[in-house]
## 1
Amino acid sequence: MAEASPEASESSERPAPDAGIPEQAVGDPTALAGASETDEGAAPGPTPACDFWDALYTRRSVRKFEKEPIPRELVRQVLHAGIWAPSSCNYQMWDFVAVDDPAVNAELARLSAQMGNAPVNVVVAYGRDFSEEGWANVQSASAAIQNMSLAAHVLGLGTFWITQMGDREKVRAVVGLPEDRLVVAVLALGKPKGEPRKGPKRRPLAQVAHFNHYAGRPIPSSANPADWAADLLATYQRARVLNGLRHNKPRAWEVAALRAALDELVPEGRDADAGKALRWLDVLPCTGIVTAEVNRARPAFAIDVVERTREVAEFAAQRTVPHGRTFGWPTSSALPAPPESAYAVVSCFYRLENLPEAARGELVQAMARWVKPGGRVVIAYVNRHSFHDLTEWLRERRGGPGGVEYVLAPDPNIGPFESLEPRAVETLCAQSGLTITARLGLQPVPSREEIEFRTRNFSKRHRRLSASIAWVLGVLGRFPGLATRRGRFQYVVAER
Ligand SMILES: Cc1cc2nc3c(=O)[nH]c(=O)nc-3n(C[C@H](O)[C@H](O)[C@H](O)COP(=O)(O)O)c2cc1C
């Protein structure tokens, strides 16, 4: 990446971009802004040379920034790149408000924590009533944002694009934009802290690009497992896991539930000194979050994983110490099948919910083959007879992400998802020749602080409603009998 030093800019200065500006480009905006022609066309800051493809490949969203302020000359240069974007009808109805006053940024951060990261937040707005057809206003503003992101990168700065800004009308009011301006996004801008992460991979060109006629099979926009072919689910999960899934951190209350379940259902294997004498197979671990927790909680087990693709299997296996062996399911996968009758424990945590009904049966049958006689199959699943479906419905109702968008986002729900009937799970076990020897239901509830944080952008009414639901769920969790029947997380242990 080129350095943004003044020396670099002097030695590599390219012709000012106003040379040869088409006539229609200089007219309107200059008049509207009351600026001179030179202001509009010439670069206000350094324009370091940088290979286009290099800039394209090395730009990354940066979310950690140095605190130091950014010289306005550099900020102006970034904004200048914005005005060189195309816009619908060449209206150029964008406005950029670069906030570098810490007090104003603090006000923005109160609306969304995302605006509390960078020394500069560029609020990008567009004339609300211009180019509404086909959302061309949003598209024009987006083109400007992408120009600014690339320019910032070439100038040695980092950016990240913020849509989750809370109430955009409040953002507009904080920076004093008039009502007829639509705030499209905010671009956080600053000097990156630390080395850029390795870039998330891109979906292969062959999957997304077509000539003349679309010839692909799209990832379904449906949260219903029945709508997903097995290979599309494999492709989707591979992309989510490898392309930098953000929701790949365990939530404290879910980890606590897992530990409580293990203590009751798999009490052995806590002794790290015992070596890796016992073998555990974790089935469809996806991000491997749960696998890593099992690894920490039961160090006497060597944990292998079985996944749909080699890449996801390797990703999950790398979260265990030592790294587990990798196997494939279904059998068409490029990986070998796990050995039969080999494992003391075969577990599947919240993955049956991803599968259509027939595939659930096939998977439980395969698990019954992989476990050794006298070993245990442990299945964790989300209970249909719990508050799960209601709380998901509420989340959607309050205008938050819902349906496929939400379901596909957080772990463990990576892919289509539907909660399961306890009786259906018991039938699956029986049909696979497994006898259920233990059951446990738990109702983990986030702490009050966590709930307050997660609902901070809700309306007052929905915040209160969420807190009440959490209270009810907490009470429910204190009665083991109720939690067993109504708890969101259900666990069954079955033996061959
Ligand atoms: C329209 C759009 C909205 C985005 N909104 C957010 C956001 O609200 N918060 C965030 O952290 N990142 C946001 N991003 C950044 C993406 O997460 C990021 O571009 C993506 O993960 C790819 O990573 P890369 O930019 O490093 O290539 C957004 C990106 C786009 C294009």
Note: Residues 1-38, 405-410 have pLDDT under 50 and may be disordered.
## 2
Amino acid sequence: MKSSSQPVHDLPVPPAPQSERDDKFDVRAFRNILGSFPTGVTVITTLAEDKSPVGLTANSFNSLSLDPPLILWSLNRNSPSLVCFEKCPNFAINILAQGQSDLSRRFATPMPEKFTGVDWRAGGDGVPVLGGCAAVLECTTVSMQEAGDHVLFIGRVDRFDGLSHAPLAFHAGKYRLLGDHIE
Ligand SMILES: Cc1cc2nc3c(=O)[nH]c(=O)nc-3n(C[C@H](O)[C@H](O)[C@H](O)COP(=O)(O)O)c2cc1C
């Protein structure tokens, strides 16, 4: 994996304890535990080598650093999109609005023409920016690191826009609307 930011410490992933490597490690239960953490929903977009738009639904997005402005997300190593995110230096985080669960389902389904009929425009670096989102962050990849069955991407935020629509939420495998806030 290449890395264009310094310093990046590629620490080896330590081997799992024996108890977690044997058959007793319950992958389903582990997934459910991870799903108990509520998140937003994003569609992360980039360009293929032929400049066609590429994107997938991801909820691994998170904030990382304010100064410099950095964000992170992770992509399954088996994803056909991986090569595009490795080769294109830019990507956009499209934070979906509460009315965009259909868009989330669409971009979570492997298919060749994901962008057909979708409202999008080219952002500052040419990567697709979806219409009607809660927010958009346009980024430059500064680090890619293999981490287990995923690749961890860190991006520097070059431009951002939004906050006009309420975000879509995801919890325990279901799309949700945000509830009332607590004083
Ligand atoms: C709510 C939700 C969140 C997801 N988050 C991620 C993620 O963070 N990383 C990832 O690799 N796949 C994630 N996926 C699965 C991908 O969207 C799905 O595998 C998709 O088909 C990948 O696109 P591709 O096949 O065109 O590469 C998520 C799916 C859903 C429904």
Note: The chain has one domain: 40-171.
## 3
Amino acid sequence: MNLLEKVLEYIFLPSCGVCGKLGEGYLCKECEKELNKYTINCNDFKQKTDILHIFQYKELIRKLIIQYKFNNKSYLYKTFCEFIVKNKKAFDFIKSYDIIIPVPMHNRKKALRGYNQSELIAKELAKTAKIKIFTDVLIKTRNNKVQSSLNKQDRKNNVKDVYKLVKKEKIYNKKVLIFDDIYTTGATIEACKKEILTANVKSVGILTLAKDLL
Ligand SMILES: [Zn+2]
């Protein structure tokens, strides 16, 4: 944190993104307990795996993510990150990678929303875990349909050839973690993974904020 950020944080005391309580950072203890009820495998995350989903996409989590994406509550990324970083297993998982790449959003859509929700979270995680974040390596070449409006087969076709790797050398021989907000059928993130694997990386992992158990 630079001096300006410290001063700003002092003036604008952080509040809990879920309930608004002041003085306990971006996630108060009570809400943390509440969020803990929705974790999937962070707490009993024993075996070595390359996929980690933090929450189940339902009830409170679903509500928060929808607010985060569509109701302009971009500040919620701080709350999500605070939760993830405090979870030792999840944080260790992130730190075991060299680079994090958020699933890209098409430029036009990003301009419309004002932010890429996955990028905000990935940036904060990268900063805390001291790993690199690249947002210019994987790009979205066209503005396709919204995945949630489609069935499983159509989702696969919808993301076909949509993501493109443009600076392969930046991730050569690295351990790359792809980050997305919601995992449903996995079509989006698998399409990204397939593209990243063409760059001779050391390994590719997947991290999502939530998984829709359907
Ligand atoms: Zn709270």
Note: The beta strands are 51-56, 99-102, 132-133, 138-140, 163-165, 175-183, 203-211.
## 4
Amino acid sequence: MHPDQITYADRFDGISGRAIREIFKMIAKPDMISFAGGNPSPSALPDTEVARIAQTVLQEDGKRILQYGATEGYPPFLESLKGYAEEKAGRPVPAILPVTGSTQAMDLLCKALINPGDVILVEDPSFLGNLQCMRLYQAKLVPIPSDEHGILLDALEDAIREHHPKMLYVIPNFQNPTGKTLALERRKPIAELAEKYGMVVAEDDPYRDLRYSGTPLPSIKSFDEAGWVVYLGSFSNVISHCMRV
Ligand SMILES: Cc1ncc(COP(=O)(O)O)c(C=O)c1O
């Protein structure tokens, strides 16, 4: 039998990576300044600094770094990450899990929370890569309209009442693909709606530190008194995508 006859799992029905592949083809053109993907300028990639740091840590603690370790990660990294994560989230964080990029965090969240048919509320439009991940877990995606200040709270609450979602996926700063930033006055209400209706908020915030003017806004997580918000950070867009942290 030819491998063409392999039947794929139902969860692959309707899945296509084509859009992302097309975008990456365009990005690869040397004369292209593409706004389609979140790729930094090559001149911003800190290759020399990363080489120096890698050499230092491997020389100082290489045997431990190259060995199997605790699931929660390399202890000195966890220690330094804690302060960084708390500054980003704007509050003490009870648990931090280093993963291979925010993409893996989304995958783990879906794996842990989403049954086929569960509803995830998403901004309209939203980040292709994570929408794909949610579809792989057979979530039903319900788009929520936005204005220039991000997701509309009335529409959000109406959708929560109608669809009883498991999760809201939101990119609060310099949203991909719209570039919009969620207004300060909409952030606390989102944390409150999550608690009121029992809905997890996946706050995907890889672009927070790419602010060139003004002060960073408090995260939705900073208003999360009850613990419904999972804050996803990333070093992809401030250091390098390929570090996968
Ligand atoms: C909104 C958003 N979330 C997540 C990612 C991917 O992050 P990571 O490279 O940490 O997996 C991207 C891409 O850069 C993105 O635009």
Note: Residues 38, 101-103, 127, 130, 171, 176, 204, 206, 234, 236-237, 241 surround pyridoxal-5'-phosphate (CB under 6 Å).
